[in-house]
UniProtKB/TrEMBL annotation:
<dbReference type="InterPro" id="IPR001486">
    <property type="entry name" value="Hemoglobin_trunc"/>
</dbReference>
<keyword id="KW-0813">Transport</keyword>
<dbReference type="InterPro" id="IPR044203">
    <property type="entry name" value="GlbO/GLB3-like"/>
</dbReference>
<dbReference type="GO" id="GO:0046872">
    <property type="term" value="F:metal ion binding"/>
</dbReference>
<protein>
    <submittedName>
        <fullName>Globin</fullName>
    </submittedName>
</protein>
<keyword id="KW-0349">Heme</keyword>
<dbReference type="InterPro" id="IPR012292">
    <property type="entry name" value="Globin/Proto"/>
</dbReference>
<keyword id="KW-0408">Iron</keyword>
<dbReference type="InterPro" id="IPR009050">
    <property type="entry name" value="Globin-like_sf"/>
</dbReference>
<dbReference type="GO" id="GO:0019825">
    <property type="term" value="F:oxygen binding"/>
</dbReference>
<keyword id="KW-0479">Metal-binding</keyword>
<dbReference type="InterPro" id="IPR019795">
    <property type="entry name" value="Globin_bac-like_CS"/>
</dbReference>
<dbReference type="GO" id="GO:0020037">
    <property type="term" value="F:heme binding"/>
</dbReference>
<dbReference type="Pfam" id="PF01152">
    <property type="entry name" value="Bac_globin"/>
</dbReference>
<dbReference type="GO" id="GO:0005344">
    <property type="term" value="F:oxygen carrier activity"/>
</dbReference>
<comment type="similarity">
    <text>Belongs to the truncated hemoglobin family. Group II subfamily.</text>
</comment>
Length: 142
């Protein structure tokens, strides 16, 4: 027979499910700290990649910092990037660099590896990559 305790458990489960459904990708990624970990795993791969590595400066730290702020904002977190740097205008910011389709694919490939390395669950990994595909191909300019 279902008692009060079972009823409470069901209510709790429903609340949890709703919470998860209304979570932003940002929250599911672990907030700014989760994103920082991804960025830390991502840039060494970018730097080591023959197609895209040479586009980046040796001192990658400032790029990592700006990327952490940007991705937090991009995935639904607080507008940390805009607060410091104004409107993202990311396509325009990438215009000085010759970005080909192959380079967009390389960038996404490094990101896929970084997400896997941080232990993110496959479903979330797919959602994150899907969201990044749009801008990556949009930045193709060469
Ligand atoms: C499509 C392939 C891509 C390539 C080859 C690429 C390459 C670069 C390069 C060379 C820089 C400049 C580093 C410097 O400061 O000297 C940069 C900066 C940046 N990229 Fe990308 N990028 C790509 C895609 C993306 C995507 C998909 C995003 C995010 C959606 C992104 C976000 C950023 C951010 C936030 C910065 C720093 C902007 C700033 O200076 O404030 N990039 N990228």
């Amino acid at each position: 027979m279902a008692g009060a305790a079972d009823y409470l458990r069901v209510k709790e489960l429903i609340a949890l499910t709703h919470e998860r459904e209304s979570m932003t990708i940002y929250e599911a990624m672990g907030g700014v700290e989760g994103i920082r970990r991804i960025v830390e795993a991502f840039y060494p791969k970018v730097q080591a990649h023959p197609l895209i590595g040479p586009l980046f400066p040796d001192n990658i730290r400032p790029v990592m910092e700006r990327q952490t702020l940007f991705l937090s904002q991009f995935f639904g977190g607080p507008p940390l990037y805009s607060e410091q740097y104004g409107h993202p205008m990311m396509r325009a910011r990438h215009l000085p660099f010759p970005i080909t389709e192959e380079r967009a694919e390389a960038w996404l490939g490094c990101m896929a590896l970084a997400l896997e390395e941080t232990g993110m669950e496959p479903q979330l990994r797919r959602a994150v990559l899907e969201r990044l595909k749009g801008p990556a191909y949009h930045f193709v300019n060469s």
